[in-house]
Design a protein that fits this description.
- The protein is α/β, with parallel strands linked by helices.
- The chain is built from 13 helices and 18 strands.
- The longest helix is centred in the first third of the chain and has 21 residues.
- The radius of gyration is 21 Å and the shape is globular.
Length: about 400
């Protein structure tokens, strides 16, 4: 079985690489302009196009007065990556405190020279290997998959965008910015992670407590080191409450048994459940793991929308015109019970309405997969899905 699985994986990767070389993808997808709204005592802005987001983030970094907290999973050493690095260096040179976190594994291919910073910037590289991992200590597992930027404790960004030129124009993703008291939730998330993971040579960050309580905006953090995984529970509770519609956008959709059953139960009680995923993502094996659920989803009354001509990397959902989540966690095992992740949960009709508009725009660039089309797929494809199914817990 292991040899068969390995053979299928190698074949899938080989075919995918060949397809990208001989048939380059035509990058084309609809853009949704940034949208502003007020939630509680904070202003919020949604971003669904990388160039718009990065311009806003860089302007915020260049305007910082006291402190910058910057955390990312992938940080490419390309033109955009260098622009972010230079902006952070210039901020530190004018006296701003700058703290940076990036994941060591995700940036293995980034040149070492790019990862060198002046001493004026405090840098934490989340290590590739941690003591205890080899003896399967779950507290030492997981990657730092979060993407957070906080400026002066007043402005915070969170979402699916990593830092890189490709993501600026060729990927469809979603980020949200908060200006006001709710920025504290993301500042606190950064501070807690920094203080938990920092080696002795890095300074301790003060934990000052919240200035206000805003129940409509809640930052949920998966923390393997504490065996805390609230994002999964957030999804399950929201899905169970649904009465009219559930719109989910995911880069990699590999639900566990409980989330799958919750979605099927919602469909059975008449909820319009739609799942939008890339027709072909940047991880072909994850695609095939996900496809193993399509028969169950389609026969259970859930519609599947395949995003065309670009990679959709967003991790969002909106339900009943009232509830929304935007963040870094995919609906898969690695994100929901493995990695350090952060998702914001927002109870606000204005944001939900905007995210429904975004979903409609994305759907205009997607095709709905029918049961008939799916049933007509090749026998070899059905066999591959069956053989790869036992590997789902690894992703």
């Amino acid at each position: 079985m292991l040899l068969t699985q390995l053979a299928i994986i190698v074949s899938l990767i080989g075919i995918d690489n060949w397809r990208k070389r001989v048939r380059p993808k035509r990058i084309k997808f609809p853009r949704t302009a940034p949208a502003d709204m007020t939630v509680g005592g904070s202003d919020a802005t949604t971003f669904t196009y990388g160039e718009d987001l990065y311009a806003d983030m860089l302007a915020a970094i260049r305007g910082a007065q006291s402190r910058i907290l910057f955390e990312t999973y992938i940080w490419k050493g390309d033109e955009l990556g260098r622009e972010f690095k230079q902006a952070l260096i210039e901020a530190a040179e004018r006296g701003v405190e700058v703290y940076v976190i990036y994941d060591g594994f995700a940036n293995l291919v980034v040149p070492r020279s790019f990862k060198r910073f002046p001493s004026s910037i405090h840098v934490l590289c989340y290590p590739l290997l941690r003591p205890g991992l080899l003896v399967l200590n779950i507290r030492k597992s997981g990657r730092d998959h979060r993407k957070i930027l906080v400026i002066d404790g007043e402005t915070a960004y969170v979402g699916g965008y990593n830092i890189g030129s490709t993501y600026a124009t060729e990927w469809r993703d979603t980020h949200i910015k908060f200006r006001g008291p709710s920025a504290w939730d993301f500042e606190n998330a950064f501070v807690d992670f920094w203080n938990m993971q920092r080696p002795g040579g890095l300074p301790l960050l003060a934990d000052e407590g919240a200035r206000t309580w805003e129940p409509r905006i809640r930052a949920h953090r998966n923390t393997p080191g504490m065996l805390v995984f609230p994002i999964r529970g957030m999804y399950l509770e929201a899905i169970d409450r649904a009465r009219d519609h559930i719109y989910i956008t995911q880069a990699y959709f590999i639900p566990d048994r409980e989330i799958l059953q919750a979605l099927l139960s919602a469909a059975r009680r008449g909820v319009d459940v739609r799942v939008l995923v890339p027709e072909r993502s940047n991880h072909v094996v994850a695609d095939w793991m996900s496809r193993g659920f399509y028969s169950t989803l389609l026969r259970g009354g859930i519609s599947i929308w395949l995003y065309e001509n670009a990679m959709v990397h967003a991790k969002t959902a909106t339900i009943d015109g009232k509830w929304t989540t935007i963040g870094t966690a995919n609906i898969d095992r690695l994100s929901l019970t493995g990695n350090y992740e952060i998702n914001v949960e927002v109870f606000d009709e204005g944001l939900a309405e905007q995210m429904e508009k975004v979903f409609a725009a994305d759907s205009s660039n997607a095709r709905r997969l029918s049961i008939g089309e799916w049933d007509r797929r090749a026998i070899a494809a059905k066999f591959s899905e069956l053989v790869l199914a036992p590997l789902r817990p690894l992703l």
